[in-house]
Protein 1
Amino acid sequence: MTIQDFLVLNKIIIFFEMKYFIFATTKNKFMSLRKYLTSRVFFLQVLAAAAIIAILGYLFMHWLTFTTDHGHEIAVPNLARLTEEQVEEKLDELDLDYVLLDSVDYRSEYPKFSVVEQDPLPGTKVKVGRKIYIKINSSGFSSVKIPDLIEKTYREAVPTLKALGLEPGTITYIPNLGKDMVLEMRYKGRNLKVGDRVLKASKIDLVLGDGKASYVDDSQADSTAVPVETPSDEQ
């Protein structure tokens, strides 16, 4: 056997020894891990970890309940017709807050500067500290300009009036070929011109044509024609 053959054989022996060492080491580690997992110490550590997790979970839920006041809800009171000062006093007693959004057009069925709208609605369950949004009534009707309704039909005039917050009042017919065409506008007996100002919710009386031709001149018609008045809701 030559020296070269001896060196090769020696390398092969060393290789198998290393393989055996690695196998033996791995086997010992596996046996040690298996022994540890089945030992009493491992089970005690598992139980201790589970107990710690349970305690931490309980403390977290208790903290969450405390910070969010979970389960404690308040019924929103009815704030309608209350002034802003009364709203503040009433909500303070319930640990609630409010935000004044805006004032709305005057509503005669509500006192001036009283609540007419609220959100959330009365009876709604909310958390402590919740903000209630309110709108209050104006101090009175604002004024609007009379639109140009002359020579418009009654059907065209009514939506225009309502869009401005006005209401059609008494309807009077006089001889004129333009049936249901607006010839005059009146308020409390006086004639209105385009641009005159009246308060919102005012009733505007309208003079309409009856659709019948009249061959009598204007001076005679004024002295002989008897207007026929009908309530606006009959139109």
Protein 2
Amino acid sequence: MIEVEQLHKRYGTTQAIQDVSFSVEKGEILGFLGPNGAGKTTTMRILTGYLPASSGTARIAGFDVHEQSLEVRQRIGYLPESPPLYREMTVEGFLHFVARIKGVSAGDRPRRVNQSIEQCGLSDRRKSLIRKLSKGYRQRVGIAQAIVHDPPVIILDEPTVGLDPRQIIEVRNLIKSLAGNHTIILSTHILPEVSMTCSQVAIINRGQIVATDRLDNLMEHLTGGTYYDVEVGGGVDGVETAIGSYLGYLPNLRSVDPLPRNDLPEGRYRFRITVEPGSEPGSEIAAAILEGKLQLHEMRRSRASLEDVFLQLTTEENMAEAAIEDETQAEASEPDASEPEAIPAEAVDSHPDESPESKPPADN
């Protein structure tokens, strides 16, 4: 339904996005995730036809965004970060107006307006002036105008920014209810937004896509997936070495890593035991620790979160770029071997024409 290939956008010498590629299948919700300033809004504006790309292609429902812009706009609903609402109009009047300018036929317009009002939970606010609505309800009106013409693709840019926790939950549920009948791109920098709403994620950092996959796959393969945090103690010497030998024969274990002891009592240690995706050897781990004459004080099974994935990808990317910048600066500061070495000023005689014999004798 949505295909993006090698999109680039430059503003003068500034590269806003480069080589952005991803795809979204029909009925899916893609979380387009990245830090502030990563290039999310630029990409969304290109996809909606608001902004031309410098190079690359994007197709929506089979139509090229640049070459067939009008056909694309008829097939998308767009909610920008600040919804474009006419505050002096009623909810119902505004949606009729939007449906008309989006080409919904006069005969079908009342049905489409009523359906979008019901889908967005605005039935008891249809006669209210938009300026009198809370921010949460105004956001619902923004989503309603995006779907009033029943587009196959919906693009939402930061739809929950500025909402209170209750309003955020309501908007999330609304977005999830639209999946299946619509293909949705949800652009956000809020991690829970993606993990609770989306089945697929694309992560952008500094204008480049650093990962795109189904959410479960990313969390399993990039961070090691499932792990167990254990706290052990006992009278065994060399606990940090011993626990590795106790667990070494167990299958499906990736690694055993010590964790900071912080305020643990004397003789207690914490370890993180990372296991293979899909395996659950918790009972075997506990049995091996007890057989090794250690005391098992705590054992907690955890799964990598989207936050772990996000931090791993964006931190690695930033560190790599910083290393390249440092190397470039170091090379620039090195002297050019082809140029003669400069002679320090103090090494140059201030009277080069005078020989030692011609200098006046020193006063006695």
